[in-house]
Amino acid sequence: MSTPTTPAKVRMVGLDLQENDDSRAIVEAIEEDNEGVAVSRMPGLVRVQCPQRLVINQASVERHLGRPWETQEFQLSIVSYFGHINDWDDDQVVVAWDH
Q1: pLDDT beyond 80 at 4
Q2: What is the set of domains in the chain, with CATH numbers?
């Protein structure tokens, strides 16, 4: 006799960003580069959520900003995050769950 299986719960990762011009470009880049992105806008704050893994690519942000952008500038926009920052280098920032 087999037991019914329940679907695995998908864990969301996400960011809360200040609402500003740079953050708008970051959100547009995230939407372009990630599947299943949900964006919630509140006064002064933008929440971005994605299942399991969220990638912010430096090249995509630069394209949306129309100027050079270093991933270290991300610190100026982020308010909080949920998940783990698995990678943060010159090319990208990755927020994901380790398991």
Answers
A1: no
A2: 12-96 (3.90.56.10)
